[in-house]
């Protein structure tokens, strides 16, 4: 059976270099990394993962808790997180909380038992105090839960501002804003704050409507949107805080005989892949999902290395204008 010494000899590098490649530590050129992996494949060398984890006191696992991976935004987020976790030498343990605090608590306990190296929280149903006793590196997505826990978010306020100003600039006289439940303490609520500020400053007539507490329950969207458009037939602009909600708006407008964008202009949020496939294609606010994912993994690694890092990480957004406006 091949050993790490055999790999080092065949690759023409030191055992320390092979170890660094395996553990993704220190600077290693891409050519050297590729050579080491090629020699490992040729020799059939497979590192003992259990021994490595005991030696380093690391499992090379990162726990990821999301509300629902079936939601397009979180599905894309999980894809990018897995990619960058792999680049850093980690594997992901993925859990869907379905916004159930008991499930979320059980998953955190399971991750502790499995000695994960860190946890990325995309679901936030527990009280803030419970996150502070995880005793693992933690990164939260789109929620600030304390001064000692780093978070990653896009610039939600700027996104809401860009979306609302687009509709005002297009001449919309009455704009509806459909958002998640604002009782949830999420940074995404800043999109709604920006909406209110822009319409008030411009003197634009408006109406706001919130989803139920389970903001990812798509079965409620159709009812909420149909009631909104029937009660306010003069709405000519809609800013929805997700592309999924915006897609339902386009669909129900068509059912009610309203043309998008002639009668109603629609803006979504996230820029999931499906936003460009829709007809009409959806104007939206692009969150930098890939950059957010890379940063989240890097923040876990920096905490493990006891390196410096920023606790507040807000990335810029971009307005993507398509056919729906």
TrEMBL record:
Keyword set, alphabetical order: DNA-binding, Repressor, Transcription, Transcription regulation
Molecular-function annotations in GO: DNA-binding transcription factor activity; transcription cis-regulatory region binding
A Pfam family this chain is assigned to: LacI
Domain HTH lacI-type: 2-56
CDD domains attached to this UniProt entry: HTH_LacI, PBP1_Qymf-like
Superkingdom, natural source: Bacteria
Keyword 4Fe-4S set for record: no
Protein name per Swiss-Prot or TrEMBL: LacI family DNA-binding transcriptional regulator
